[in-house]
Amino acid sequence: MSNNLKNRQIVLGVDIGTTNIKCCAYDESCNVIGEAHEKITVLDPGDGRHEIEPDFLWDIFQTTVKRCLLNSNLNAADISCIGISTQRATFLTWNRKTCEPFHNFITWKDKRSEKLCEQWNSSILIKILQFGSGVLYFFTRKKLFQVFSILKFTPAMVLTRLYWILKYDKKISDKIFHDEALFGTIDTWLVWKLTGGKVHATDASNASVTGFFDIFKMEWSKIVLSVCNIPKKILPTVKNTCDSYGQTLPEIFGSSIPIYAVVGDQQASLFGAGCYEKNDINCTMGTGTFLNINTGSQPVSASKGIYPLVGWTISSNTTYMLECGLHDVGTVLSVAQNLGFFDNPSESCEIAESVADTGGIFFLPSASVLEVSI
């Protein structure tokens, strides 16, 4: 550690996105001292599947953090704490004793549950649920009923992909029902690995996008777990966003580092953009493009395709948000670049502004899912 950094509070922030992982070291004034990043390889085995190999992700996570420390002229002992932001709704199941994964990470862009979603959305049971919830909302004005009245299942929900595994992969489902498995999104699995299996936890921002977390009661939904036959014992403890998630094993980085924050990437973007007040809005453009609105201390339901989520929980005080998004904006731009439409994505703005109008033609950059009705 350089002399001018002695006795200063240095924090590491790690962001695991869909295509990149980045680690930055910040001083107490939020100045970046050093950083490092690596590319994430997403596997595409066919049939709409999108996966990440767990050992690969673990290796590049360690490599990125170590390179950041090296680039910052720091040692792990110089770090006050680490915070982790991750892509959401990408999950894994693994052996609770050996930590051996039962499959690759199934990412939020995976489509294996698409037919299952179509069956559910067209079923009489779901239509009755939607109609009944609409009636109950009309008389009670309870937001929970409004959410159920516009409910639509999509492959982006962890619920549908986890149910697909339980239904179609007998080996894994047997492990799950015989108490040999644990479930977690990327944040949960990383915390589990970093702490040597001592902490199995997530935060409410990540839990809220699974499809089986009740954001009104702030707990795993007993009804959804029961209907979908998902054992609660495989699920992580839900903690505050800013909370103690244990310490990293000293042998990983050379010294233990306390883990004091875990959060979903879009929620982290909303917070990082300074959107602390109700009605503050943030738009994040990455692999997907997401529009997030801070709705304050109460969840607010809106129209089809726009659902309330947990933004963050600090000192047990929860901030909620609304979110809508297009999943493939970054992907479509990469395809356009590979086709030679432009050399750099930044040129797309100049190209778009080079004409007075489009003659009534609109292009929606989504190769997979449109969350919002157009």
UniProtKB/TrEMBL annotation:
One of the protein's GO biological processes: glycerol-3-phosphate biosynthetic process
SUPFAM superfamilies the record matches: Actin-like ATPase domain
Record keyword Kinase present: yes
Span of domain Carbohydrate kinase FGGY N-terminal: 10-272
Keyword Ligase: no
Gene Ontology terms for molecular function: kinase activity
Pfam families for the chain: FGGY_N
Record keywords, A-Z: Kinase, Transferase
Classification via InterPro entries: ATPase_NBD, FGGY_N
Family: Belongs to the FGGY kinase family.
Protein name according to UniProt: Glycerol kinase 5
The gene coding this protein: GK5
